[in-house]
Amino acid sequence: MRNNISVTTLAVAASSLIILLVSQAEAQTLRDPTLPSQGYTAPQASHVSQQALVLNSIVNGQRAYAVINNNILSVGDSISGIGLRITAIGQDSVTLSDGRKLQLFQSITER
After folding, report:
1. Nearest to 84 by CA among 92, 73, 93
2. DSSP letter string, 88-107
3. How far, in Å, are 38, 66, 107 from residue 91 at the CA level?
4. Could you tell me which of 105, 64, 61, 60 has the C-alpha nearest to residue 86?
5. Using CA atoms, how far apart are residues 104 and 98, in angstroms rounded to an integer?
6. How far apart are CA 70 and CA 81, in angstroms?
């Protein structure tokens, strides 16, 4: 009787192993539906958009100033290392020569 239990246990274990291996092989052949289609290549970013631009603050007085990437700039100034110029400084935004608009975030503590 002891040999019958061991053979039965061995058969069940072998069957379980075969089922596990077959299911893993099938799972490996499935394609992730969130991946882009075959042959897709991501668009290459231009040098200008690779560097982050952070609008730190805007000071409006007789003349408007914007602090971008910790540099104080005014209308007509060029952003260092990027080659973009500031075309306009508004109350809460700055417009760049390539058409982009940098926007200030509203403080969480303001009501």
Report:
1. 73
2. EE-SSEEEETTS-EEEPPPP
3. 47, 10, 14
4. 64
5. 18
6. 13
Per-residue pLDDT of the chain in tens (111 residues, 90 and over written 9): 455 557 677 777 777 777 766 666 555 566 777 777 777 676 665 554 456 888 999 998 899 999 998 999 999 999 888 889 999 999 999 999 999 999 988 766 555
Measure the CA–CA gap between 81 and 96, rounded to whole angstroms: 14
Contact (CB, 8 A) for 95 and 84: no
Question: Global pTM?
Answer: 0.51
Sheet containing strand 93-96, strands side by side: 86-89, 93-96, 101-103
DSSP, residue by residue, 2-16: HHHHHHHHHHHHHHH
Joined together, the tokens standing for residue 1 give 């009787």
Token reading at 38? 């075959």
Integer Cα distance of 99 and 86 in angstroms: 10
